[in-house]
UniProtKB/TrEMBL annotation:
<feature type="binding site">
    <location>
        <position position="87"/>
    </location>
    <ligand>
        <name>Ca(2+) 1</name>
    </ligand>
</feature>
<dbReference type="InterPro" id="IPR010255">
    <property type="entry name" value="Haem_peroxidase_sf"/>
</dbReference>
<feature type="domain" description="Plant heme peroxidase family profile">
    <location>
        <begin position="130"/>
        <end position="309"/>
    </location>
</feature>
<keyword id="KW-0560">Oxidoreductase</keyword>
<feature type="binding site">
    <location>
        <position position="221"/>
    </location>
    <ligand>
        <name>Ca(2+) 2</name>
    </ligand>
</feature>
<dbReference type="InterPro" id="IPR019794">
    <property type="entry name" value="Peroxidases_AS"/>
</dbReference>
<protein>
    <recommendedName>
        <fullName>Peroxidase</fullName>
        <ecNumber>1.11.1.-</ecNumber>
    </recommendedName>
</protein>
<keyword id="KW-0106">Calcium</keyword>
<feature type="binding site">
    <location>
        <position position="69"/>
    </location>
    <ligand>
        <name>Ca(2+) 1</name>
    </ligand>
</feature>
<dbReference type="InterPro" id="IPR001621">
    <property type="entry name" value="Ligninase"/>
</dbReference>
<keyword id="KW-0408">Iron</keyword>
<dbReference type="Pfam" id="PF11895">
    <property type="entry name" value="Peroxidase_ext"/>
</dbReference>
<dbReference type="InterPro" id="IPR044831">
    <property type="entry name" value="Ccp1-like"/>
</dbReference>
<dbReference type="GO" id="GO:0034599">
    <property type="term" value="P:cellular response to oxidative stress"/>
</dbReference>
<keyword id="KW-0325">Glycoprotein</keyword>
<feature type="binding site">
    <location>
        <position position="214"/>
    </location>
    <ligand>
        <name>Ca(2+) 2</name>
    </ligand>
</feature>
<feature type="site" description="Transition state stabilizer">
    <location>
        <position position="64"/>
    </location>
</feature>
Length: 363
């Protein structure tokens, strides 16, 4: 609780401090409230044009990278006299950190992004935060504070939750980093724009560009939250694999961690609350991502450069409430929140959403 208030207080103070009277002139006639932010216009121009062949890809991977870099923050390890992470080290120590099981697949995005950080002489820790969502429909605006130190050490192994982990173990780890059960769910909002390539490596050959975790992996909607509540019926490929459980839809993969968190009394209420309220979901994501972004950092030393990130277009009205996928009924929903009706049915649109014909194209 306390730390939550600290974060919003810090954020407010940082915003006030970073507002000098005159705006700095940046490249191409743009301006910024702080001259330190100008470089980020150039970084974003460059990655829009030159990273991932026209900037069409990489939002998903960048978001995952943000989490893996930040969550290695461990006050518990510090208390035990060990290095407690939290310094944006993945890019600097990719060979060590991306060799762990939890970071499988993260190496690709790190290698793609590093030359851009070097070219623009910005710190690796800032860079992993600068670009995360821009290609995704309905994305919320995220705060971007710059100025992290470039000096880091390799994060200890074992600090990133894995899909095979129990709810107890995930909540213990997340609690160490400063997130309570509801905030852990808020962070998992990211899985509404996610897919996998490394849990089941056979399915991805079938579906070419990865297996999505929900039916709309390029849209920042609440489909993930209703689809994870559905009774699992089959594996999309040759499952089960470690960390995978049966999913409700062909072509969709379900992580065991998402399955158990959706059904645990400590996390189910927050989970279910998003099914009928996508805008609340987007707001909670903004708040929790602001907290994630400053883990282990002193926000007073950072500069608010959020203004350089282009404003997202407004979320399309038709994604405000999740829809039941075609062929499913409310009977297939497995609700577990003890304090609310077992099924989030009241406002859930029972009109089935047809599944896309081409299996889930991904950005
Ligand atoms: C309990 C915690 C979590 C677990 C166990 C977990 C696990 C996973 C796994 C296994 C994948 C598939 C990776 C692959 O095979 O390529 C994945 C994908 C992803 N995760 Fe998580 N995750 C967790 C929390 C988070 C959080 C907090 C974020 C961001 C804030 C996040 C963002 C993503 C994204 C964006 C992807 C998709 C990457 C892509 O499509 O390339 N995850 N996650
Ligand atoms: C704290 O760290 C110790 C030593 O690494 C570990 O045994 C323990 O499980 C950790 N506890 C938490 C709450 O993370
Ligand atoms: C950040 O550190 C890396 C080495 O880990 C170095 O190559 C890079 O030039 C540094 N960048 C800045 C902005 O100091
Ligand atoms: C790169 O950034 C570092 C640290 O901010 C600074 O000391 C160095 O002079 C910069 N190099 C160039 C070429 O601008
Ligand atoms: C869930 O699906 C399984 C098949 O995988 C079926 O046997 C079971 O009856 C279903 N449960 C509910 C509550 O629909």
């Amino acid at each position: 609780m306390l730390s939550k208030y600290f974060v919003s207080l810090f954020t407010l103070v940082v915003a006030v401090m970073a507002a000098p009277a005159k705006r700095a002139s940046c490249s191409n006639g743009r301006t910024a409230s702080n001259p330190k932010c100008c470089v980020w216009y150039d970084v974003l121009d460059d990655i829009q044009q030159n990273l991932f062949e026209g900037g069409q890809c990489g939002s998903h991977e960048s978001l995952r990278l943000t989490f893996h870099d930040a969550i290695a923050f461990s006050p518990n390890l510090t208390r035990h006299g060990q290095f407690g992470g939290g310094d944006g080290s993945i890019m600097a120590f990719a060979q060590i950190e991306t060799a762990t099981v939890a970071n499988t697949g993260v190496d690709e995005i790190v290698e793609l992004q590093r030359p851009f950080a070097l070219k623009h002489n910005v710190s690796f820790g800032d860079f992993s935060l600068a670009r995360r969502l821009e290609q995704l429909r309905g994305r919320p605006r995220l705060q971007f504070l710059a100025g992290r130190s470039n000096i880091s050490q390799p994060a200890p192994d074992g600090l990133i939750p894995e899909p095979k982990d129990s709810v107890d173990s995930i909540l213990l780890r997340m609690g160490d980093a400063g997130f309570n059960a509801a905030e852990t769910v808020d962070l998992l909002i990211s899985h509404t724009v996610a897919g996998q390539e490394h849990i089941d490596t056979v399915s991805i050959r079938v579906y070419r560009r990865g297996t999505p975790l929900d039916s709309t992996p390029s849209t920042f909607d609440a489909q993930f939250f209703v689809e994870t509540l559905l009774n699992g019926t089959a594996f999309p490929g040759t499952g089960p694999h470690l960390g995978e459980v049966e999913s409700p839809l062909a072509g969709e993969l379900r992580l065991q961690s998402d399955f158990v968190l959706a059904r645990d009394p400590r996390t189910a209420c927050e989970w279910q609350s998003f099914v009928t309220n996508r805008d609340l979901m987007a707001l909670k994501f903004q708040i929790v991502m602001a907290k994630l972004a400053v883990l282990g950092q002193n926000p007073f030393t950072l500069t608010d450069c959020s203004e350089v990130i282009p404003n997202p277009p407004p979320a399309p009205a038709n994604i405000r409430v999740a829809q039941l996928p075609a062929g499913k009924t409310l009977q297939d929903i497995q609700g577990s929140c003890p304090s609310c009706p077992s099924r989030p049915s009241a406002r859930l649109l029972a009109r089935p959403r047809p599944l896309p014909a081409s299996l889930f194209p991904r950005n």
